Amino acid sequence: MTALPFADRVQAGRMLAAEIVKRSPLRPVVYALPRGGVPVAREIAAALNAPLDLLLVRKIGVPWQPELAAGSIVDGERPDIIVNDDIMGAARVSAAEFNAVASAELKEIERRRKLYMPDRNPISAADRTAILVDDGVATGASMRAAIVAIQRRSPMRVIVAVPVAAPEAVRELSVLVDDFVCLAAPESFRGVGACYRDFHQLDDGEVIALLATPTPLAANPPR
Predict the structure, then answer these.
(1) By C-alpha distance, which of 3, 31, 10, 37 is closest to 216?
(2) Contacts of 79 (CB under 8 A, 6+ apart)
(3) C-alpha span between 165 and 14 (Å, rounded)
(4) Across 162-173, average pLDDT
């Protein structure tokens, strides 16, 4: 188990990349969950000589209680909508109400993709090893939606890679994917931010700069 805290997301990404390289994933493509997942994913993409893309996940909240998730929408070569049937039923959300919120969230996803990766089309996961990366997992709601969405896109394998996660999230998510790579899952988990010395809020400018700078090539990329 890796000693905590990590210095920052870049250090965590390099340590995580070392574990991913050992697995020699075939035809990898790395998907970052922004914003915090971007610097972590960039290190993994560099180590694998793999393309780096984003996977933007937006909650579809109950209209009169937005913090309650009736579903999620995930972007990509085609957007995917994941419905939380239990919440839909309990909150009595109609299809029209759900679709109205989903449409607004899709517009926000499209705005962010154009901002972060202008003139770059989403990369298909079909017949590739899709590696989903974030800077940590607490409840796992966003990562679960990302997993469901990416599995609909015919990947060869799905790997989740995070530096740190709550033990319960590891147990729940690891059974959904082919491999779950996590450096630390402390029983005394107090939130992702507590596991880093530098866990500053990334702004859009930092994300844009990270994605605009080419990743260095690894000396011995996996085939």
Answers:
(1) 10
(2) 73, 106, 109
(3) 17
(4) 96
